Structure prediction request, 483 residues.
Amino acid sequence: MLLKDILQNINVESIVGSLDIDIKGVNIDSRRIQPGHLFIAVHGTQTDGHQYISKAIELGATAILVCDNIAETAPNVTFVKVADTEDIVGAVATQFYGNPTQKLKLVGVTGTNGKTTIATLLYEMFRGFGHKCGLCSTVCNYIDGKPYPTECTTPDAITLNQLLAEMVAQECEYAFMECSSHAIQQKRIGGLTFSGGIFTNLTRDHLDYHKTFEAYRDAKKTFFDNLGKKAFAITNADDKNGAVMVQNCKASVRNYSTRNAADFKGHILEESIEGMLINMNGCEVSVSFVGHFNVSNLLAVYGAATMLGKDPQEVLRVLSTLKPVNGRFESIRSPKGISAIIDYAHTPDALENVLTSIREIVKNKGQVITVCGAGGNRDKGKRPLMAQEAAKYSDRVIITSDNPRFEDPQTIIQDMLEGLNPEQLSRTLSITDRREAIRTAAMLAQPGDVILVAGKGHEPYQDIQGVKHHFDDHEEVRAAFGI
Prediction:
């Protein structure tokens, strides 16, 4: 594509060189530059792309997009200056890849908890309806059943548009995407056209990046501010931030609730460790999901599917066939009658949701033993809060290592233990080795007890000092159960 065509909707401040050059690729990572590429120099959170311009030219870049003053140029290389390169990466990528979201229906899901479950279930549901679909999620990206590994919840704008363009090439009609606060703040979804947006909930998370809860909330709200008039927005009426999200939203707004009057309403009729019978908008449906929080997730899925034009009864039929997402309230039962739940819960609120659901099922017929930790190099303030939630709803707690990253695991565990009072500490063990922690929980458990292994869910690794070592909670639980 010609450079002038790529930049046709961009406000340009200055140009050195020709815009009539053919661009073969677009990149913000200088290491991926190939001959004929356009390199966009962005002021990133870790490094400044302007420092790698010479490297990009050396690798064959024929055009450079900058927002700093151009100190020196190079022969046969076009330099284009704009006000802020981060602002326009999405628009450039969308244009280069042929505006893929004009050719399929894209639905974004944002919030603290539930994004992966909702996006994945929508993907599975619409495939169940016979549509070709794409998915962009924390667990994995998929194009009509084929996996494309992912490194973060929402890829950078160029990778994202490349993925969406591939979905279009493979004739996908729908795409469902998790939209993290980082991605919204860093404009990774800039330039995309969303057919709909879903808000799940908002609790403390990512304050190491956003610094304040208000900044975190406002990043999420920006997503809904930018939805078009033809789109829909579905918000959680049970979360006090639900109404805030859609204050300035131009889209058609709907809401869901498990407690109050809403467009999409549901409540639990019966529940066991294997699933629930739910009343959803006056109709009963049996599902393979557990927990009050999952009723909210399923209502969001139901609402989005109907807003996309599907018959409500057909939506309920497909909903009854869906299975839990990898690492989201997955149950494993031992031959001795002990149940283990593996869940990605890594915030205080997520732990509370999962544990209250387990408590409601167990009642007083068994003990709840929780194995959990907290990630290193992340918001330290939530560590004691997570331990408090674990102790509040569990009979026994084992604090262990999660992904320590570049921190000392013992320091993280100590931060968590400082949130507990003497009575809670008397019911708590600290075992740094996660494998030993899971084995200990299995040894302590009796028939009828439930073990929650929280924090890692789908992740098949532990991140220690920059190295991802193979570690899978599913494998460890089965080994501890002898199955």
